[in-house]
Every structure is written in structure tokens, then in C-alpha cells.
Amino acid sequence: MLEPSQPQPEPSDELKLNGGGTITQAAVPAQATAVPAQATAVPAQATAVPAQVLEVLAPDAESMAELYRSILQGVGEDVSREGLLKTPLRAATAMSFMTQGYRQDLKTILNGAIFEEENNQMVLLRDIEFYSMCEHHMLPFFGKCHVAYIPNGKIVGVSKIARIVDMFGRRLQVQERMTNQIADAIEEALQPLGVAVVAEGKHLCMVMRGVQKQHSTMTTSAMRGVFNDLSTRMEMLTLIRDNSR
Ligand SMILES: [Zn+2]
User: Fold this and answer.
1) Most buried residue, 100, 197, 224, 238, by CB count within 10 Å?
2) Which of 55, 100, 134, 145 is labelled catalytic?
3) What is residue 241's predicted lDDT score, i.e. its pLDDT?
4) CA of 202 to the centre of ligand 1 (A)
């Protein structure tokens, strides 16, 4: 909460942080380019902001908002028109959300969700949606990811696989690297007999600009351990294909 002596912003202009911290977008006069002092003053209690909120908001969302204001001016927009008044902070918040993977780590995500298991049959999680942004154009690429592994005494809670995909998706990426990082993370967490990741993505930098190929999909894969064996790899690929009919 803000101290009573501080100016109270419009409630709708606040980004609520659950622990009582607030990042404030004060009503900025149209021509002002500097963030008002009270907007940058983070309350002392902000240190108590829950981790799940901090991991979403970039630490410097306010100055990111200022940069978005410059981008709007750069494309020829009138930043004072009504529809755009809150756009810089909204865009900064959205960008923070879409890049929250930078502020996450594998250990926290997996916390307590690895279990001993003797049954060493293939585990396949298919059609995990992912959303990422290409690091060359900062435009989205998105699609489905399939993750398979063959345990070697340890399995992981199934929702954690999806969270690992999110962690590497929500940052600037190339699809090839994202695919490998997901495989590396599963390998590091479980030391399985093998891990396979296949990602199928549509890239807006191809669809909306450049060559404008609207129906092309890029497929990338990372095969580790026993998935380098042709028959195991074929079994996984067949399972993906059969189930997507
Ligand atoms: Zn691109």
C-alpha cells in the first residue's frame, strides 16, 4: 500500500501486485515524456511481493513502458489519443509476461515433482501448446511441442513438462534452440534413458512480413540417448502422428 501522504492514483491505473506492492502508472499528461516521480517510487513493501508476481513482471516495467511510448511516436502515432494512453504500460506488462522465462529456473519449477518409478516405458506428452518470440524480429512463433522420455527410475509430474516448455518458450528464441533446451532440461532433471522433443511452429515473421508464407510450419527435433536408436525414434514419431488424426 502507498503511504497516505503520497498521491493516490486512479485505481484503474494500477498494476496490482498481490503482496501489497504496486507499480503505478500515474495519469501522464499527453506531452510528458518523463515518468512522474511517484510512478517510479516502489513502496518499501515491494520486497514482499510474491515470487510468482515478480517472475511475470520485468523488474523495470516502468522504463520499458517509456520505450514503448517512443516506439508509438516512432511509427507516427499520436500518443496522447485516448486509446493509446495506457498502451505503453500494457505493452510493457504483456512483454514482461511473454518473457517471464528469463526469470524462472528449472529447480523452482520442478520443486518436489520428481518421483521414483520402476516402470521404464516411454512417457509421451503430446500437443503441448507453446508461444515464443523469434529473437530476430521479436515476432511471435507458436505451435505444438511433443515431449517423450524413457525413464531410468525417475518420472516427473506431467504438468511440469508443460511448465518447462513455457519456461523456454517465454523468452526470445529460435525454435531450434528452444527444442534443444527443453530436451536438455528433461535430461538434467531426470537422467532418463532417452528424451525426444519435437516442436512444430508457425512463425509470424514469415507469415506477416518477408516471404508471407502463411501455411508453412517449421518442425525441429532434439533426440537424446535411446531416441538416437532408429526404432525408438520411429515409435515416438508414430505415436505423435497416430494421435494427431
Ligand atoms: Zn523472425
Assistant:
1) 197
2) 134
3) 86
4) 11
- Listed as ranges, residues in the chain with pLDDT below 50 are 1-50
Q: What is the pTM of this model?
A: 0.76
**In the annotation, is 146 catalytic?**
no
Q: Dihedral of CA 214/215/216/221: which sign?
A: positive
173 and 91 belong to one structural domain: no
Residue type at 74 in one-letter notation: G
Can 215 be counted among the known catalytic residues? no
Q: What is the pLDDT of residues 116-158, one digit of tens each?
A: 988 889 999 999 999 999 999 999 999 999 999 999 999 999 9
Residue 233, beta-bridge partner list: none
25 annotated active-site: no
Furthest C-alpha separation in the chain: 70
Beta carbons within 10 angstroms of residue 39's beta carbon = 20
Amino acid at 160: K
Q: Domain limits at 187?
A: 107-243
Q: Give 105 Cα–ligand 1 centroid separation in angstroms.
A: 25
Q: What is the DSSP letter of 82?
A: G
175 is catalytic: yes
Active-site residue, selected from the candidate residues 66, 137, 187, 235: 137
- CB-count exposure of residue 107 (10 Å: 0-12, 13-18, 19+): exposed
Coil, helix or strand for 17?
A: coil
Pair (189, 85) in one structural domain: no
Looking up residue 91, the CATH number of its domain turns out to be: 1.10.286.10
